Amino acid sequence: MAITRIHGSAQGRCRAVVCNGLVYAVATDLTNAGNITDQTRSALQALDQTLADAGSDKTCLLQATVYLTDMSSKAEMDLVWCEWIGSRENWPQRACVGADLAGSDLIEIVVTAIQS
Hints:
By secondary structure, the protein is α+β, with helices and mostly antiparallel strands.
C-alpha cells in the first residue's frame, strides 16, 4: 500500500495524504485576513490547490469538518462555502465545530475526498 504525502510549510504535518484512492487534506487561511469571509475564501483557495496537487477536486469531496473560532460567524462562512461548493451534486457530508485555533486563524477545514 503506497502512501503519498503532500508537504506544505508547516513543520511536522502535511497538507494532504493520499492512500488507496482517498485524499485526506487540510487548509487554513494563508493570507492572515482579518475576517471570516476573507479567511474562508483564502482557505478554500488553498484547499482547491491541495486537492489538485493530490489528483482531486471539490466535486470529489466525501466529508468536511470546518473548525471555527467563533460559531457566531458560521452564517458568514456558509455564504462563502455555498458559493464555492456549487450544486447539490457536489455537497459532502459536513460538520462545523467551534475550536481554539492557532495564531490569528479563524477557520480550518479538514476534508476527505476521492481521487478524480
